[in-house]
């Protein structure tokens, strides 16, 4: 028995559980097993809530820091945009991507070829910005809540960065250990957090009602921001994009759709979509209510200087009110609840990344083989989160712009997706409405980027890294079979059975031109003469039509046709050489006969041909087919024979 070395053992552990499908990844957003009945929408809303509702921990403070005393008015604009813009958009997204694919998948369908793939990669960069900043921002704010608590030991003060890194390391360790669906934990955290927030906000509103002088002072400060009430409204419209991180829950709300009770087809799927639309509506209404009430109460009751860096309300406005008006005991309970949900928001974001990346990149051939495993991705995402936290020095305020940028780009892409969908379905009113919403979010995105460009800078780094790794991976994986499976129709199967009965099968690769009798007669004559194919051995033509060369893995459906007395197998795919190799191997497996595959040498520069193969799926077909077969079948005696002449 050969002893397993520590290196082999570590590699085996690291790559354990390789999964080809995003649905198999662990975490709150994973797709339930086929037999899983799902959960009621009101439970699944808590999976959205750990991301969406947890922003209450820092949103009111960041809003005041961005908009000052007019933050309640800017928040009102945000709420209107949420309810009458983002919510209708994502209700449409839920209807058109009922399996949790989201708006990125909708755009993928209307943007084929390489342009579509590169566009999706860019959106993945912004999605990575969204999820990774969710992790780092939530961990930083959880640390802030902990350090501001009066019962925390003094020796921890001044270690914001170290504690935040520890929370991120703990998050990574949990996923390395194995993180299964935790909807029960999400329900407990969200119910407790919203309940405590309701108490804090209600108490704050009562204090506001009892202090009309404070309200008057706040209103005077608001009017001082402009020459008239209309000017104040204009100022609110200008600054509201900086509050856009309060929109973070919509893409997550679509991502968790497979968890909703229903089914994957028929009436069950209709119930799932209805549940998802209800989930999105309820989450938006609850969040909007809390945002308005908390923004108004914190702006009136908390001195402005406390919101500034170093102030007691910086990054934790509602926690400040909890300690100030309800005592340190209740405040500590609120802090614990906030820390827990912020940490779990990071877990939700990590799970989202683990579902999103394998959903696209492996299918595009744009991820290394190890990216199919959970643990290597966890290590990569944790390392990037460490880097982002270090660069921002675990500062909650500094990360708000980057977070909002990621959220806004995803929502803007969703508005474009539903606008195009309405156009395809001939729905003129819906198309006009969604186009207007798209313009609003495009303005919001641009305004946020101009005000705080670090979000685009971070996203650009992610996009550059994703595109670079993807293209290198695509080139390295170009010689795989790249077929999900091979199916033969009845006519093609009859051709194969006839050949198997005669004990030999010659497959002549043909690049069709006119597809007339002269073409096939001439091709058969030339191949039998030049390649010395015996006249008594059966031969069929194989024609591969490249559809979308940017695709990577496709199912091959082989059709058989009789043309001018010749038997022809046709197949549509993304690459000629890989498909010929996959079909040849499938023929071997179906008939038990090793086929001989015959090519003519390609004309032209070999370097140009290999580039054409990588980008267009054509080019130097014969040697590439042979290389694909060689890599797929280690035993030379089991390989179909590839000839060129």
- Rg, please? 30 Å
Helical segment tally?
22
Quickly give the structural class.
alpha/beta
Order of helices and strands: HHHHHHHHHHHHHHHHHEHEHEEEHEHHE
Structural features:
elongated, alpha/beta, single chain, 65% helix, seven-stranded mixed β-sheet, 22 helices, 645 residues
Overview of this protein structure:
This protein is of the alpha/beta class and 645 residues long. The protein contains 22 helices and 7 strands. It has helices at residues 6-14, 41-52, 59-67, 71-96, 102-110, 113-148, 160-177, 183-209, 212-223, 229-239, 249-255, 266-301, 317-364, 374-391, 396-424, 428-451, 454-476, 490-502, 517-530, 576-591, 606-616, 621-632; strands at 483-488, 506-509, 539-546, 554-563, 566-573, 596-599, 641-644. The protein has a 7-stranded mixed sheet with strand order 1-4-5-3-2-6-7. Helix 3 crosses helix 12, helix 7 (160-177) crosses helix 13 (317-364) and helix 8 packs parallel to helix 12. The protein is elongated.
Summary, kept brief:
The chain has 645 residues and is of the alpha/beta class. 65% of the residues lie in helices and 7% in strands.
Secondary structure: elements and pairs:
Layout: H1 6-14, H2 41-52, H3 59-67, H4 71-96, H5 102-110, H6 113-148, H7 160-177, H8 183-209, H9 212-223, H10 229-239, H11 249-255, H12 266-301, H13 317-364, H14 374-391, H15 396-424, H16 428-451, H17 454-476, E1 483-488, H18 490-502, E2 506-509, H19 517-530, E3 539-546, E4 554-563, E5 566-573, H20 576-591, E6 596-599, H21 606-616, H22 621-632, E7 641-644
Parallel strand pairs: 1-4, 2-3, 2-6, 3-5, 6-7
Antiparallel strand pairs: 4-5
Helix pairs in contact: 2-8, 2-11, 2-12, 2-13, 3-4, 3-12, 4-10, 4-12, 4-15, 5-6, 5-15, 6-7, 6-13, 6-14, 6-15, 6-17, 7-13, 7-14, 8-12, 8-13, 11-12, 15-16, 15-17, 20-22
């Amino acid at each position: 028995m050969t002893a397993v070395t520590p290196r082999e053992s570590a590699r085996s552990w690291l790559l354990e559980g390789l999964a080809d499908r995003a649905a198999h990844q662990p975490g709150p957003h994973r797709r339930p097993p086929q037999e899983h009945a799902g959960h009621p929408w009101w439970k699944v809303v808590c999976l959205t809530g750990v991301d969406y509702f947890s922003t209450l921990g820092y949103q009111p403070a960041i809003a005041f820091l961005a908009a000052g005393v007019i933050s309640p008015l800017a928040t009102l604009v945000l709420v209107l945009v949420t309810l009458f813009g983002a919510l209708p958009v994502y209700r449409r997204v839920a209807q058109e991507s009922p399996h949790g694919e989201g708006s990125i998948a909708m755009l993928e369908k209307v943007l084929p070829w390489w342009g579509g793939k590169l566009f999706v990669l860019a959106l993945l960069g912004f999605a990575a910005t969204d999820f990774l900043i969710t992790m780092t921002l939530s961990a930083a704010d959880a640390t802030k809540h902990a350090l501001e608590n009066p019962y925390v030991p003094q020796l921890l003060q001044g270690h914001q960065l170290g504690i935040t890194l520890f929370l991120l390391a703990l998050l990574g360790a949990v996923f390395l250990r194995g993180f299964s669906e935790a909807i029960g934990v999400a329900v407990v955290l969200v119910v407790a957090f919203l309940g405590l927030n309701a108490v804090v906000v209600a108490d704050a509103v009562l204090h506001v009602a009892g202090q009309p002088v404070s309200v008057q002072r706040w209103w005077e400060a608001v009017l001082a921001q402009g020459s008239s009430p209309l000017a104040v409204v204009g100022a609110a419209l200008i600054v509201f994009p900086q509050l856009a991180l309060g929109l973070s829950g919509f893409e997550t709300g679509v991502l968790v759709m497979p968890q909703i009770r229903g089914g994957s087809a028929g009436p069950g799927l209709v119930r799932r979509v209805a549940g998802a639309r209800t989930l999105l509506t309820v989450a938006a209404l609850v969040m909007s209510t809390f945002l308005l009430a908390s923004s108004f109460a914190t702006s009136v009751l908390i001195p402005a200087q406390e919101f500034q860096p170093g102030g007691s309300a910086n990054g934790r406005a509602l926690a400040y009110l909890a300690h100030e008006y309800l005592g340190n005991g209740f405040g500590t309970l609120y802090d614990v609840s906030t820390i827990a949900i912020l940490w779990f928001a990071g877990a939700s974001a990590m799970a989202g990344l683990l579902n999103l990346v394998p959903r696209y990149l492996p299918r595009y051939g744009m991820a290394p083989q190890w990216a199919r495993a959970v643990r290597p991705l966890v290590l990569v995402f944790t390392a990037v989160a460490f880097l982002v936290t270090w660069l921002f020095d675990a500062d909650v305020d500094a990360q708000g712009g980057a977070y909002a940028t990621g959220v806004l780009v995803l929502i803007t892409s969703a508005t474009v997706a539903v606008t195009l969908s309405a156009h395809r379905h001939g729905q003129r009113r819906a198309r006009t409405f969604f186009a207007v919403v798209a313009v609003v979010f495009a303005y919001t995105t641009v305004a946020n980027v101009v005000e705080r460009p670090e979000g685009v800078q971070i996203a650009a780094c992610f996009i550059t890294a994703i595109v670079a790794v993807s293209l290198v991976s695509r080139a390295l994986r170009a010689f795989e079979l790249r077929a999900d499976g091979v199916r033969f129709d009845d006519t093609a199967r009859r051709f194969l059975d006839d050949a198997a009965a005669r004990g030999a099968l010659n497959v002549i690769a043909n690049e069709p031109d006119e597809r007339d009798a002269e073409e096939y007669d001439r091709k058969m004559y030339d191949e039998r003469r030049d390649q010395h194919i015996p006249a008594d051995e059966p031969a069929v033509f194989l024609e591969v039509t490249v559809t979308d060369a940017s695709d990577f893995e496709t199912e091959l459906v082989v059709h058989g046709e009789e043309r001018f007395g010749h038997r022809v197998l046709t197949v549509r795919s993304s690459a000629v050489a890989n498909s010929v190799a996959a079909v040849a191997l499938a023929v071997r497996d179906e008939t038990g006969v090793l086929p001989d595959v015959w090519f003519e040498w390609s004309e032209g520069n070999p370097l140009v041909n290999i580039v054409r193969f990588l980008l267009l799926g054509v080019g130097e077909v014969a040697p590439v087919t042979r290389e694909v077969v060689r890599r797929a079948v280690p035993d030379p005696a089991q390989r179909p024979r590839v000839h060129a002449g």
